[in-house]
Amino acid sequence: MNGLHIENMKKEFYNFKLGPIDLDMDAGYVVAVIGKNGCGKSTFFNCLLGTESFSGECEWKTGETGHEADGCTDGSSAVNRISGKFAYILERCPFPKDYTPRELEKCFGEFYENFDRKKYYDVLKRYNIPLNRQLSKLSRGNIMVVQMAFAFSYKSEVLFLDEPSAHLDSYAREELYELIGEYQDEGHIIFWSSHLMEELDKRADYVLAIKKGQQAYFGTKEELTERYHVVKGNRRQLDYMSKVMVGRRDEENFSMGLIDASEDYLKLASVDEPAGLGDIVEYLL
After folding, report:
1. What's the rounded Cα separation, in Å, for the pair 285 and 269?
2. Would you tell me which of 44, 109, 210, 240 could form a disulfide with 35, CB atoms 3.0–4.6 Å apart?
3. Shared-domain flag, residues 36 and 91
C-alpha cells in the first residue's frame, strides 16, 4: 500500500524551529494538522510541498525518497515532487483571477504529464461550473470546486487543505466535503488545517499536533480524544483533579479544563467527556 514516512524533519529560521516531525502512515486517511496560530503548520506544509528546504527524510512507501535537496525549489527533483504528488488547496485561490476554468486547463494542464482533462471537465460539469466565466466572477464555493477539480485531474497523491471551507456557505461546504471524501476514497492522503474544529472532529482519522514548532502528538484521533477529557464543574471539584489536569480555565460561576484520563483520578466533575480537537488546541497546545 502507498503511504508516507517522515523521519526527523527539521526546518530552522532565524527565530523559529520546526521539528523534529516524525510520522508513518498508509494512504487513504485524513490527517488533521492542529495547533495555535504560528505553531508551524504552514511551514510543515511548505516543506512537504518543496517550497522550503528541510533536513530529515521524507520517504514514500512506493520507494521514492526525498531529502533536504528534494525539499528545495531550485532543482528539477523538487519540481517533479510537486507536480507528481502534491496538491494544495488554499482559502485564496492561487490561479490568476482573470482566467476562466477552460483557460486554466489549457494553460496549466500542460505542466502535468498525466493531466486527465476528461476528469477535470466531468467534475466541473457535475457542479455546473461555467467554463468561460472568469474566476473573479465566480462564487467562493465554485472557485474551490475548480481547485479540487484541478487537483483530481493531475493525479496527485497528497492533498493539503489550508482553511478550505473558510467563508463558504453551508451548501458550498457540503460540495467541498463530498469532493474531499471522493479523493480520500481513491486512496490518497489528506492533510487538513482548519479553524473550524467541528469539521476536523467529524472527518479526521489521524491528528498531527504541533506546539511552538514541536510535534506534540501524531496518532489516531480516537486515541487522542479518548486519552484527554474535558471536565466542567465548580473550582473545588476541579481542584481535586489537579494531578491529572493539563489545562484549566476558571470563570465566575464554573471552571473548565482538560485532564489526562489515562491516569487514575476522582470523577467529581459535573461534566466529564472525551475532548474535541478544539479542546486539545485550547488547553494542550
Report:
1. 23
2. 210
3. yes
Contact 129, 138 (CB under 8 A): yes
- Flag whether pLDDT at 84 surpasses 70: no
Is 233 found in the same domain as 154? Answer: no
Report the C-alpha gap between 116 and 105 in whole angstroms.
Answer: 10
Cell digits for 93?
485561490
Q: What is the CATH number for 134?
A: 3.40.50.300
Q: How much is the average pLDDT of 243-264?
A: 91
Query: Which of these three, 170, 202, 220, is where a domain ends?
Result: 220
Does pLDDT of 73 surpass 60? Answer: no
Check if the beta carbon of residue 57 is closer than 8 Å to that of residue 6: yes
Determine contact, residues 35/42, Cβ cutoff 8 Å. Answer: no
pTM: 0.83
Instruction: In whole angstroms, give the CA distance from residue 183 to residue 285.
Output: 29
Whether residue 37 has pLDDT greater than 60: yes
Residue 230 C-alpha cell reads as: 474535558
DSSP E strands, the chain = 3-12, 17-26, 30-34, 55-60, 65-66, 86-90, 158-162, 189-193, 206-211, 214-220, 228-233, 245-250, 255-260, 271-274
Indicate if 86 and 188 belong to the same structural domain: yes
pLDDT at residue 62 in the model: 67
C-alpha cell at 269: 466533575
- The reply to whether 213 and 231 lie within a common domain is no
Rounded Cα–Cα distance for residues 260 and 26 (Å): 28
Task: Give the per-residue pLDDT at 246.
Answer: 92
Residue 80: what pLDDT? 38
